[in-house]
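For reproducibility, we list the full input for the NDP complex.
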Amino acid sequence: MVHSKVVIIGSGPAAHTAAIYLSRAELKPVLYEGMLANGTAAGGQLTTTTDIENFPGFPDGIGGGELMEQMRKQSIRFGTEVITETISRVDLSQRPFKLWTEWNDGPDNEPARTADAVIIATGANARRLNLPGEETYWQNGISACAVCDGAVPIFRNKPLYVIGGGDSAAEEAMFLAKYGSTVTVLVRRDKLRASKAMANRLLSHPKVNVRFNTVAVEVLGEQKPMGLMTHLRVKNTVTGEEETVDANGLFYAVGHDPATALVKGSVDLDEDGYILTKPGTSYTSLEGVFACGDVQDKRYRQAITSAGSGCMAALDAEKFIAEHESPEEPAPVTETEKSNTATEYKSNPLL
Ligand code: FAD
Ligand code: NDP
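The corresponding predicted structure, in tokenized form, follows.
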């Protein structure tokens, strides 16, 4: 069994930003990047998309996979140990925390590693609907992120559809209205789940049409390889009537599943399963366990906000480790101490 001061679980922008900060602070972080954890390749959600145009520093855009490869290289460059295994079980009931991987998990097995601090950066997955045609046109007209993909040319002045009736659907539809000729929101029930304010804005938007009691049943489009979606088959759930409509974009806003099965019961989660953090920090309900990225953020869910919260988790973990260092082991000068004074920390009312 190996001991580390800090272990990071996850491999998206949050995990790697935390790793870059912690390795530069000479804390020798270990990052478990997962082996197809939750069905996503190491590198996280961005490995499932093409160009990222809203991550600062890349004026011409950068491929999602390439961006994550660069972040991984940067983590390793400063001394992060990246392990391509999925953490399958944790025991956070006492310190040092214990972690098992898929390869060594078993009732009698020793943990693969112990750690003084753990950063959870396991991300979230957008829910899909598994419609006929979805696999073919995923990222060729279908997306689960309007803010990420809405501005691309294939959607300009074209009829666009959003599925869902929550705040995300309302936000996405109003965002897409800047680009599409029209935006139609398909709501499966006879009412919206979105907050009243958002619902009112949505219903009064001149370019948005809301169709209640309506579901999508099939996505249709060009047959050629990499062809784009062109139509959507929709069904009225009350009358059973089906029709085919022109649709060049389809945006899912039917919720996300945060990857929190690992820590359920150990740290406090909100009613949707997201890790609760103390506002303005990465502190979870458990001392020594920090959370960053989409696993604790159901509102912004962007690469840059994930990266920003990864930085926060690293600085919070670094401070925690420094405060709990055993007296015989002199604490290294931390990255935080190099750039911040203790007074600055104390002056932050959130800490
Ligand atoms: P994630 O990217 O969710 O990655 C977490 C990863 O950790 C998992 O995927 C898995 O590989 C690993 N993991 C999970 N559990 C374990 C475990 N138990 N052990 C080990 N490893 C584990 N945002 C933008 O800002 N711009 C965009 O253009 C953009 N485009 C997007 C396009 C698509 C199709 C999608 C789905 C998302 C897009 N996003 C975009 C959103 C962005 O990808 C996310 O906000 C961001 O990736 C979240 O980062 P994260 O670090 O929280 O974790
Ligand atoms: P929600 O769970 O709130 O809404 C999901 C929507 O998708 C619901 O209308 C649901 O319908 C619908 N849906 C689910 N499954 C299907 C399906 N198979 N077919 C058709 N429709 C389906 O998720 P959101 O992502 O919208 O919001 C998550 C949380 O984040 C909420 O707490 C929300 O308030 C918050 N949020 C806040 C924002 C803000 O304040 N600006 C912005 C975005 C999110 P049904 O209602 O019938 O269950």
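The two ends are 34 Å apart (CA to CA). Residues 337-351 have pLDDT under 50 and may be disordered. Both points were considered when choosing residues for closer inspection.
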